[in-house]
């Protein structure tokens, strides 16, 4: 599944703290869609591919990891791929 560019942070649960604005809502929606996609749509597991609008959002990347999803995401120069 490929997701498009929106900018900002996103997440769910513990990764959702401090996330505001429409861009964050779009990322939360993308994670919600990924939660239902494989089983509900009878799709085999595929890696998630996202541009830097999603890849720069630490909470989005954490959301993918929390779900155990394989992913390839673009990040802008200077983005820390593994914070902490």
Automatic annotation (TrEMBL):
Residues 1-11 have a biased composition (Gly residues). Residues 14-23 have a biased composition (Basic and acidic residues). Residues 1-23 are annotated as: Disordered. Coiled coil: none annotated. It comes from the Bacteria. Residues 26-77 form the Transposase IS701-like DDE domain. This is Transposase IS701-like DDE domain-containing protein. It comes from Haloactinomyces albus.
